[in-house]
Design the sequence.
C-alpha cells in the first residue's frame, strides 16, 4: 500500500519496502482542502467560459467522424482494388474510434449537456458499439468515476477477470493474466458489454438471474442492431462483395478494439498510478476525492491529433478531476493541474504511449505471478492526513 | 403495397444509421435535408416596428402546416446553446409552403431579443410540428370576435387571414391592444382588410396614447353580435384576466377560447434570503415545503426513491426535468430558472417554488 491515509500522522512514518528509492509526499488535511479549492476554482473558470467555440469543436469532430464513416463504407463497394478496400477498413476503423472515444465517451459523461442539444446529451446518446450506453454509464460514470481505483469497489481494476493490482489476492487462475488481457483486447467491445453482468459474481452465486435479466435484454437489443448493421445490412448493400465487406467491417471493429483497449489500459494501470482501500475512502471530502483521482490516473503525452484520437483520455488526470468538463478544454487545464501538482509536491504521472503501454503490459505479466515472486515497482509513498470527523471514521 | 414498401425502406435506412437518427447524418450534408425532423430557412426578414421582427420561413418538406391559432416550437442556437421557444405562425392555415412568424423582443427576452437583432435571410431554425388546442373550430362559428394584446396578435391574425382567405361571411370583430400605433406590426394590413372586406371590423386600442386604451367592458359590450360570437383571446396576463372577468359577468364564458402566449419564467430569488417555497414532485404527486437541501435529499425525505449514483454531481444518474422554478447548483452557486430543463437533482437545491418530475 503506497498511499498512507492518516496512518503517518497518527504514528511512526510509513513502513517502506526499499527505503533508498522511495519518494515520499506528505500532505496535511489543510493542504488537501486548499488543493480542492484551487481545483474547484479552475473548474468554475472553464465552465463559465463554455460557448460557441466548444460547440464548434464537438460538431467539427462529429462532422469528421461522419465523413470518415461514409468514406469507409463507400470504399467497401470497390474491394476489387485492394488498396481502396484497405483504406475503407482504416477509414471506418478511425470513424469508430472517434465515435466511441472523443464523441461517445465524452458526450455520455454529460460534457456537452450544457448545449441542450438533442441526441448529443448524456440522457439520449448511444454509441456505435455493442455496449448499451445506458449500462455503460452506470458502470463507468457512476462506479468507476466515483470509486476510482478503490480495490474491490471499482470494477475497472481488472474488470473482474484480470489481476491488475498487488492487493488483489493471487490464485493460479491469474497465471493466464497475459492471455486474458490479450483476449480482452481483441474482443474489447464485447468484453465491455459483458462487464455490467459481473459474471464472476454470477458464478459465485452473489448475483441472481433476476439481477441480470434486464441487463441481458438491453445487451441483446443493442448488440443485435449493431451486428445487423455491420455484418448483414451493409455487406448486403454491397451485393456481390458481401463477404469482403463483412470482413472489412469486422476489421474496423477490431482496429477500434485494439486502440480503445490500449488507451484505456494506460489510464489507470501504468506504474505509479495508485490504488486505494475502501476503508480509507469513507466520508471523503471533496479535496480528498480530487486527490484520489489525481493519484489514481495517468496521462499519455502526444500531439493534438493523438489527444483527439484517444478521446482526450490521454488527459486521464484532468478527465478524472473534471469528468463533465468538455474534453477539448483538458489541454489548457492540464497546464494548471501540472503546476498545482508541482506546488504540492505531488507526482503527475505522464509518459509516452510506448512507455505507458509497456509499463501496463509489464504489470499484467508480473501480476500473473504471486507477489513474493515479483518486486513492487511502486516507488511512491503519499501520506495524507484525513480531516477531523473523517479520521475518526477511518 | 406501396406503403409497406415505403416502411420497409424506411426501417432499412434507419438500420444503416443505428444507433443514430438518420438526421444526425443528413445535417452534415445540408441543414435543409431532413429525415424526421423539421427545419425552416428564413427567406425574408422585415422589422416593422422598433421591437418586432417578422420572418418568412421555408419549411422542410415533411412539415405539415398548422391550424390557425396553433403554435410551433422554434429553436435557435445562441452562444453554443440550443434555446427553445414557442411561436404561433401568423399566416393563414393550410399554407404548408411558408411560415410567417412575428417575434416581439420582450424586456429581458433572451431569444426574442436575439431574433430581433440577428435574424437574417438564409438562417436555418429547427421547428416542430404545429400543436395546440387554441384553434378555429373546423365548423366555423356564425360570428367571431378576435381579441389580442401585444405579441398575442399572431395566433388570432392567423385566424383572421384564414377566415378572409376562405371568404367567411359571418361578422368578424378584430379587437387589438398595442402600446402605440407605431408598435403594431400588422397595422397596414389590418386597415387594408377592414377597408376591403365588408364583414371585418377593426377596433384598435393604444394603451399608451388612448385615454381608455386599456380594456374596459365597453370595448366588447359595444360590439354588435358579440352576444352570440365565439371569442378568441390571446395576450398578456393582465388583458387575459380582465377579459375573462368580463366574460364571466356577461355569461360568455362558454364561448371564450384563450391562450396565454407568455411563458412566465420563475423569478430569480436571492439565494441568501431565508428558504421559502414548495417543492412539487410531479411524477409522484407529492409536495413538500422546501427545506433548502438538495432536491434529491428532499425527495428522499418525502419518502420517494429517485435513482441516483455518485451524489456529487459527476455521474448524471439522477438527472430529472425541472418543469418550473429556480434552482441553485450547490457546487457552483449558479442559479437557473429556464423551464423544462434537465438538472442533476443531487447537486441542485430549490430556490422558492420548484416543480420537478420525480
Sequence:
Amino acid at each position: 500500500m503506497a498511499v498512507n491515509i492518516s496512518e503517518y500522522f497518527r504514528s511512526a512514518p510509513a513502513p517502506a519496502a526499499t527505503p533508498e528509492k522511495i519518494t515520499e509526499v506528505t500532505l496535511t488535511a489543510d493542504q488537501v482542502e486548499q488543493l480542492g479549492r484551487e481545483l474547484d476554482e479552475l473548474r468554475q473558470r472553464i465552465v463559465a467560459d463554455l460557448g460557441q467555440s466548444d460547440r464548434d469543436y464537438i460538431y467539427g469532430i462529429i462532422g469528421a467522424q461522419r465523413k470518415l464513416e461514409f468514406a469507409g463504407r463507400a470504399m467497401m463497394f470497390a474491394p476489387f482494388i485492394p488498396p481502396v478496400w484497405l483504406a475503407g477498413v482504416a477509414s471506418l476503423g478511425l470513424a469508430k474510434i472517434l465515435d466511441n472515444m472523443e464523441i461517445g465517451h465524452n458526450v455520455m459523461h454529460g460534457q456537452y449537456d450544457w448545449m441542450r442539444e438533442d441526441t448529443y446529451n448524456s440522457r439520449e446518446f448511444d454509441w456505435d458499439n455493442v455496449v448499451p450506453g445506458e449500462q455503460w454509464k452506470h458502470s463507468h460514470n457512476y462506479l468507476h468515476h466515483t470509486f476510482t481505483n478503490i480495490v474491490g469497489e471499482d470494477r475497472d481494476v481488472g474488470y473482474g477477470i484480470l489481476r491488475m493490482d498487488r492487493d488483489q489476492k493471487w490464485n493460479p487462475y491469474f497465471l493466464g493474466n497475459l492471455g486474458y488481457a490479450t483476449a480482452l483486447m481483441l474482443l474489447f467491445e464485447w468484453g465491455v458489454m459483458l462487464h455490467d453482468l459481473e459474471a464472476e459474481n454470477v458464478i459465485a452465486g452473489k448475483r441472481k438471474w433476476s439481477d441480470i435479466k434486464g441487463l441481458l435484454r438491453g445487451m441483446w437489443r443493442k448488440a443485435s442492431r449493431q451486428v445487423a448493421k455491420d455484418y448483414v445490412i451493409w455487406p448486403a448493400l454491397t451485393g456481390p462483395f458481401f463477404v469482403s465487406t463483412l470482413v472489412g467491417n469486422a476489421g474496423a471493429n477490431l482496429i477500434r478494439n485494439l486502440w480503445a483497449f490500449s488507451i484505456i489500459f494506460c489510464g489507470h494501470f501504468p506504474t505509479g498510478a495508485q490504488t486505494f482501500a475502501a476503508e480509507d475512502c469513507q466520508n471523503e471530502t471533496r479535496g480528498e476525492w480530487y486527490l484520489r483521482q489525481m493519484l489514481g490516473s495517468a496521462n499519455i503525452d502526444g500531439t493534438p491529433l493523438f489527444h483527439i484520437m484517444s478521446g482526450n483520455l490521454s488527459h486521464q488526470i484532468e478527465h478524472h478531476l473534471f469528468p463533465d468538463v468538455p474534453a477539448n478544454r483538458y489541454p489548457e487545464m492540464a497546464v494548471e493541474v501540472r503546476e498545482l501538482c508541482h506546488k504540492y509536491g505531488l507526482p503527475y504521472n505522464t509518459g509516452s504511449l510506448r512507455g505507458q503501454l509497456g509499463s501496463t503490459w509489464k504489470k499484467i505479466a508480473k501480476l500473473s505471478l504471486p507477489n513474493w515472486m515479483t518486486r513492487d515497482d511502486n516507488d511512491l509513498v503519499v501520506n495524507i492526513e484525513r480531516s477531523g470527523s473523517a479520521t475518526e471514521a477511518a | 403495397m406501396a406503403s409497406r414498401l415505403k416502411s420497409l425502406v424506411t426501417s432499412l435506412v434507419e438500420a444503416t444509421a443505428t444507433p443514430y437518427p438518420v438526421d444526425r447524418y443528413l445535417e452534415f450534408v445540408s441543414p435543409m435535408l431532413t429525415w424526421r425532423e423539421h427545419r425552416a430557412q428564413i427567406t425574408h426578414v422585415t422589422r416593422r416596428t422598433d421591437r418586432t421582427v417578422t420572418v418568412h420561413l421555408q419549411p422542410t418538406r415533411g412539415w405539415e402546416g398548422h391550424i390557425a391559432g396553433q403554435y410551433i416550437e422554434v429553436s435557435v442556437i445562441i452562444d453554443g446553446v440550443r434555446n427553445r421557444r414557442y411561436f404561433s405562425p401568423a399566416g393563414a392555415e393550410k399554407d404548408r409552403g411558408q411560415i410567417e412568424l412575428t417575434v416581439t423582443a420582450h424586456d429581458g427576452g433572451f431569444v426574442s431579443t436575439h431574433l430581433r437583432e440577428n435574424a437574417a435571410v438564409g438562417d436555418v431554425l429547427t421547428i416542430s410540428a404545429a400543436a395546440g388546442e387554441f384553434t378555429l373550430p373546423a365548423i366555423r362559428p356564425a360570428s367571431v370576435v378576435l381579441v389580442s394584446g401585444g405579441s398575442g396578435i399572431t395566433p388570432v391574425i392567423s385566424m383572421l387571414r384564414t377566415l378572409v382567405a376562405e371568404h367567411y361571411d359571418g361578422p368578424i370583430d378584430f379587437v387589438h391592444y398595442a402600446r402605440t400605433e407605431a408598435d403594431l406590426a400588422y397595422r397596414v394590413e389590418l386597415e387594408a382588410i377592414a377597408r376591403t372586406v365588408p364583414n371585418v371590423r377593426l377596433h384598435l386600442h393604444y394603451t399608451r396614447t388612448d385615454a381608455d386604451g386599456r380594456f374596459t367592458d365597453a370595448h366588447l359590450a359595444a360590439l354588435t353580435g358579440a352576444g352570440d360570437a365565439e371569442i378568441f383571446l390571446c395576450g398578456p396576463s393582465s388583458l387575459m384576466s380582465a377579459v375573462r372577468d368580463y366574460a364571466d359577468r356577461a355569461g360568455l364564458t362558454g364561448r371564450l377560447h384563450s391562450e396565454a402566449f407568455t411563458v412566465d419564467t420563475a423569478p430569480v430569488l436571492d439565494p441568501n434570503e431565508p428558504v421559502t417555497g414548495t417543492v412539487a414532485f410531479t411524477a409522484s404527486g407529492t409536495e413538500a415545503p422546501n427545506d433548502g437541501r438538495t432536491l434529491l435529499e428532499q425527495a428522499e425525505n418525502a419518502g420517494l426513491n429517485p435513482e441516483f449514483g455518485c451524489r456529487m454531481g459527476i455521474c448524471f444518474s439522477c438527472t430529472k426535468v425541472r418543469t418550473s422554478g429556480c434552482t441553485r447548483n450547490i457546487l457552483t452557486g449558479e442559479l437557473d430558472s429556464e423551464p423544462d430543463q434537465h438538472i442533476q437533482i443531487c447537486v441542485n437545491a430549490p430556490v422558492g417554488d420548484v416543480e420537478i418530475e420525480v
